[in-house]
Amino acid sequence: MSLMITDECINCDVCEPECPNSAISQGEEIYEIDPNLCTECVGHYDEPQCQQVCPVDCIPLDPDNKESKEELMQKYIVITANA
């Protein structure tokens, strides 16, 4: 399952540079996560790095993009193969 950023985001800029897949970008009002690029850091780290640095805890799992750890690993393999 990919992550999402809720409207509690304060645009502090700490999550974007932590994402190893460049899935986080500035949206119109708050930062956004591209579900096609988010692997919850599977393949890179044991825990999602954006969640670790977020000072307001506004990065939950996205219920609209459910994926297993195996699916996230496959996505990681595809993303890094094209890098």
UniProtKB/TrEMBL annotation:
SUPFAM superfamilies: 4Fe-4S ferredoxins. It comes from the Bacteria. Pfam families: Fer4_7. PROSITE patterns: 4FE4S_FER_1, 4FE4S_FER_2. Residues 1-29, 31-64 form the 4Fe-4S ferredoxin-type domain. Keywords: 4Fe-4S, Iron, Iron-sulfur, Metal-binding. This is Ferredoxin. It comes from Jeongeupia chitinilytica.
